[in-house]
Amino acid sequence: MRAFVVVVVVVVALRRAERAPRLGMLRSSPLTLVAFFGSLKPCTQFRPASAVPRVKPITRVDAHKGHIMCLRFGPDKLLASCSNDHSVKVWKFSAGMLRTSLSLQWTADEVHDSCVSAVEWGKGAFSNILFSSSWDRSVNMFAAKPQKVDGQAQPLCPRLIAHEARITDMDVSRSGEFLVTVSVDQSALVWRIAQNSCTPLVRCTISVTNGFPSAVSAGSSTFVTASGFGQIMQWPFPTPEYAACVCVCVCGLSCRRRC
Hints:
With 259 residues, the chain is mainly beta. It folds into 2 domains: 2-51, no CATH class; 68-250, Methylamine Dehydrogenase, Chain H, CATH 2.130.10.10. It contains 3 helices and 17 strands. The strands form 5 sheets. It has a 4-stranded antiparallel β-sheet with strand order 1-2-3-4, with no helix packed on it. A hairpin with a 4-residue loop joins strand 3 and strand 4 (100-108). It is globular and about 60 Å long.
């Protein structure tokens, strides 16, 4: 089949060479053209969809009764999931000889009064803490191995409520010191993380004309929010370095660091 294709291409090239100006490769002899086209390899860059390999899932479980809103890998092969069925669940991967299994470690049903919008694991010293946020305006904290009552995981503290409308997303800073939540109430809230609680520190207000914040991503010293109208905004964390920088700038002194 390949030889046939090469012959056809050579014949077409020779016919074009008779009609077109003799430039470049068209000045070459038929033997040169045959050698050139014979050296070409079949193109594998553009393959039809039917040629792309298909794989099947390693494992599958019926995890929730509703739409799953968020999934997050955690420590020790743990996986956290949340759903609009108002529940938070933690799973564990176990590798077997032939396949990997996903087993339920604990569940917290009806831990929120509405859809659970996001889950996020802590970092650093708080990597064993799982946070959940909800459309009921609250944040919950769980230990990786929580205490259970009647088979239900219990939060580390009472629900934390500081927003006036549903929470759309959240993230933990790279240092693990701060938690950031964004809400339909046009604000982003920075919390300081402790072992058994969180304390709200700063509220960043977003103009209504920019739309409510729909997503957040936290870095080391700053975090960014995205709005429903397409804007991305960068905000500082209330670190001592930033506070000192602001103080110096307000006092009218020179500040080498960009605030």
